[in-house]
Amino acid sequence: MLVKPDDRVLFLDIDGVLNHFLLDWSIENIFTLCPKAIEAYQAMIEEIKPYVVLSSTWRKFPDHRDHLRKKGIRFSDCTPILNGIRGLEINLWRTTVGHTGRYAILDDDSDFLPDQKPFHVKTQVNRGLQSEHIQRIKELLRP
Ligand SMILES: [Mg+2]
After folding, report:
1. Tens-place pLDDT, residues 94-143
2. In the predicted model, is pLDDT for residue 89 greater than 80?
């Protein structure tokens, strides 16, 4: 699915968003995801239907991407890999596809550009996705 310039885009991180430190990481190891976070995330996606772009490190690994799809986490594209500041990767994606519409960045890290900060919804690695984050994403991306 190609993005349109005015689509509402969600840049999605995984670690620290759909998983967190309080989970039992011994079961699924590096593939650990939080069922509660996934459920809340899916409900949010159903409601606001954004164009989802994976910006997480998970995008670099086919088995990680497959695991996300298995868990029902859908995404239409991934940001390019610059191995640098995540904000630059998001900026390059938007420039390359000509995106000028609204967007939100859901991420527990903070390496974003000054003009991206207002659209950054920051989760905490020890809790992951919470209702206040979902509320903020809805404010930013509501149709
Ligand atoms: Mg993260």
Report:
1. 999 999 999 999 999 999 999 999 999 999 999 999 999 999 999 999 98
2. yes
**Number of folded domains in the chain?**
1
Q: What dihedral angle (degrees, nearest 10) is formed by the CA atoms of 130, 43, 16, 131?
A: -10
Q: At a CB cut-off of 8 Å and minimum separation 6, what does 45 contact?
A: 10, 52, 74
Q: Cα–Cα distance between 117 and 2 in angstroms, integer? A: 26
The CATH number of whichever domain residue 88 belongs to comes to: 3.40.50
Q: Tens digits of per-residue pLDDT, 1-57?
A: 789 999 999 999 999 999 999 898 888 888 999 999 999 999 999 999 999 999 999
Q: From the CA of 109, how far away is ligand 1's center (Å)?
A: 6
In a domain, 4, yes or no: no
**CA of 120 relative to ligand 1 center, distance in Å:** 13
Separation of 122 CA from ligand 1 center, angstroms?
A: 10
* Residue burial 99-122, b: 16+ Cβ < 10 Å; e: rest: beebbbbbbbbeebeeebeebbbb
